[in-house]
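quick one: adenosine-5'-triphosphate bound model?
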Amino acid sequence: MPALEIQSLRKRYGRHEVVHGVSLGVEEGAVYGLVGPNGSGKTTTLSCALGLLRPTSGTVSVLGESPRRLHRLGGRLAVVFDTSIAVRDLTVRQNLRYLARLNGKRDLRDEDELLGQVGLTALADARASSLSLGQRKRLAIAGALLARPELLVLDEPLSGLDTLGVRQVLALMRGLRDEGVTLLLSSHRLHEMQEVVTHVGVLLGGELRVDGPLDEVLGRATGRHRVRATPLERAREIAARTDGVELLDSARTDELRLRLAPDGAPRLARALVEEGCELFALEREEESLQTVFEGLVDAHAAAATNFEATS
Ligand SMILES: Nc1ncnc2c1ncn2[C@@H]1O[C@H](COP(=O)(O)OP(=O)(O)OP(=O)(O)O)[C@@H](O)[C@H]1O
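yep, here:
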């Protein structure tokens, strides 16, 4: 069973529907990035999933519970929606102790270990009011990690951060991923999300346009490669008779495009070199999340234009 599952979620504000039948699943141990531009419905989707908003229709299950029964999950679920929750007049350490008291007698994580994990050890005695936005975000994440959650949901963990702050939060996400915490993150920062997510869902205008493992979304699973070698014609002949290699059409005359089986790359490289070709490059052809996204936006705009033209 997925850690979090959303089925056919719709949300209307008055007569205006802003989430149009979104279905997605976050597998245990995954880092799922819900990405999309401002206003695409990320926060609304997460809010419905977490019982903060009542969906117009659709079903949600979070660690096997419905959004109305999330209190039963106790510390298994943690949510960071707002980074301003720290008590400003308390120090970083006092904030964590305060949250620990609110958590009751549960088996909580050691505060020094947590401070180390989120990179705030040196600021343990600084007042929360003196922290930068990135430091406040990391304090909020530390608070969310106190009760050792299995699933951590973060709305826009990167917004408003400078480059260093982004790097620190991404490093923290990677550490959590390696510990096996399931993460659901929303963000419009595609480039950065690509560095940390294992799965991605692209929301556009309230519709989930793409959903799946990052490798598949980026076309990494397709096995497409480019080869630059001379003489190119001989390289083409060699490629054509090498096992696990399929020649694809290429618009360029100075390279080959191929689909390679998983063990095809070393086999082809060896064959090319052994048969006297100079091999300059053999690289995987893949897209970035940004280019995938731009393609979707173009398709969305074209569909909207067609709709306007025909209605
Ligand atoms: N309370 C509300 N009443 C009416 N419309 C709303 C309300 N909250 C959100 N919306 C609208 O719903 C749509 C989706 O908003 P949402 O905040 O979910 O998007 P988002 O992808 O999280 O955007 P952002 O990146 O800006 O946070 C937007 O068009 C927004 O204007």
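The first strand starts at residue 4 and ends at 13.
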